[in-house]
Design a protein that fits this description.
The protein has about 100 residues and is an alpha+beta fold. Helix content is about 30%, strand content about 35%. The protein is globular.
């Protein structure tokens, strides 16, 4: 606020249900210019993940609450993601978090 960086004790997170669509937002990215798409928007279930300085800083999920649980952990831990694996909806995010912890 007022030009000072904000430090969050918890990852900011909110959600809303709009008819048959569950939307969840987490993090506080300063930019959405570098993102990874996880899943296919045409399927109605996907996530958009913001990355800054090789760290996950934000996420938006649509009908993908399970992914949001783990994306919030990625944000909180400041882990470097594997972009290819992050984009693959078949890749388990809990496993990816453990592998990223080993690399970090």
């Amino acid at each position: 606020m007022a030009g000072f960086a904000t430090v969050h004790a918890e990852v900011p997170w909110f959600w809303t249900d709009q008819y048959d669509c569950n939307l969840q937002f987490a993090g506080a990215p300063t930019s959405w210019s570098d993102c990874v798409m996880r899943g296919d928007p045409a399927s109605g279930r996907f996530a958009l993940v913001a990355i800054e300085a090789d760290r996950v800083t934000g996420a938006i999920t649509v009908n993908s609450g399970r992914d949001m649980r783990f994306l919030r952990q990625f944000i909180a831990l400041g882990l470097p993601p594997s972009r290819d694996r992050l984009a693959d909806p078949a890749c388990r995010l809990d496993t990816l978090i453990q592998q990223s912890k080993e690399i970090a």
